[in-house]
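URGENT: need a sanity check before tomorrow's submission.

F., can you look over the FAD dependent oxidoreductase record below? I want to be sure the sequence and structure line up before it goes out.
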Amino acid sequence: MSQAASKIPGQASEPRHYSVIIVGGGQAGLSMSYCLRRAGIDHLVIEKHTVTHTWRTQRWDAFCLVTPNWQCALPGYPYSGDDPHGFMKKDEIIDYLDGFIRMVDAPVLEHTEVRHVRPRPQGGFAVSTSAGEFSAGQVVVASGGYHAPIVPRMAERLPASIVQMQSSEYRNPQALPDGAVLVVGSGQSGAQIAEDLHLAGRKVVLAVGEAPRCARFYRGRDVVDWLADMKYYDMPVTEHPLREGVRDNTNHYVTGRDGGRDIDLRRFAAEGMELYGVLDDFRDGLLRFAPNLMQSLDDADATYNRINASIDKFIVERGIEAGEPGVYEPVWTPPAERTELDPLEAGIGSVIWCIGFRPDFSWLDAPVFNGRGYPAHSRGVTGQAGLYFLGLPWLHTWGSGRFSGIARDAEYLAALIAAHGTAGALAA
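Structure tokens as predicted:
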């Protein structure tokens, strides 16, 4: 549903007012719309592209969820398929989202860029967009935290013959030129893309980062099921041992591919994948790596075993009958730390940068950001009256940035917005 700023003939253009404007039409923005509509609060969702655009355009062909389908619990729209413990593939995820979009039927202004949001002296907010001027009593920022792909400046110096792309641009092994593929980063995207290439028979060189890993199944169940029973996914950030520091953590790598399994980089290495430490630089024709591969693999395995040990403890305390416990033992160990590689000599034809994204809230003119450009908030509520965030990692719990936790966060903010309700009307 497309809407634009209203104009009165013969008078200066006046911004069209809404009680709430939601910036971003992904699962977070649509969840917010669902909750506001149920509360009877008028609002508008403004989306730069089309709703749920990222899911359709920034995922590779073999992408699938790493969390089981039962955790797909958008507000009013829980997973209803016949495989709750499976892992939806890309097309199935899009089908699920399409159903949610139809159910919510949000008032959306698509293909519209929000260029400037600022508090107004009389209260509420001025919202400037590529489609005109709006005003709002309250604003919910639901555009996520992954905006600008990170590609280091060293990329400019790589040989012109090497094709480079960011993880969001990768689609499948066949779309890459011949030759080995350097994958930089081993978080969820890097590890899964490296696996996708490896399974296709491509030669992979993986620059391993400091991401942790976890088991897919342990003692007869998905680890996610165990952690859910242990109430880990209900733990608020204020009770996490790292407190707000957990928001900076890299996600554990694991996969739901082919019914779900571990991602074991050591096993990949034993099968021919080349592992190096963190990529530090490209200088004098050589890729330069930190000598930290062994430490990164050991740390990832320690996290893997630590999570399993916490499950063991829970099983003992509750007297649960389960499969036998176990400890992961390395299947491969680096014979030495290798710190240099000539990419041309190694036959590298392409590089995939899988080192994340930076947030870009430059359009939001409000004093709510810390020194690193991240919003300071408590459960999405900022120090600026009427300004909220939704859909960020660990906004409140582990699931805040995922399908599993957005409903709880959106319902909480909707209640606060309703309580704050008359401010928008008075400011209009």
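My own read: The radius of gyration is 23 Å. The CA atoms of residues 152 and 353 lie 9 Å apart. If you see anything odd, call me.
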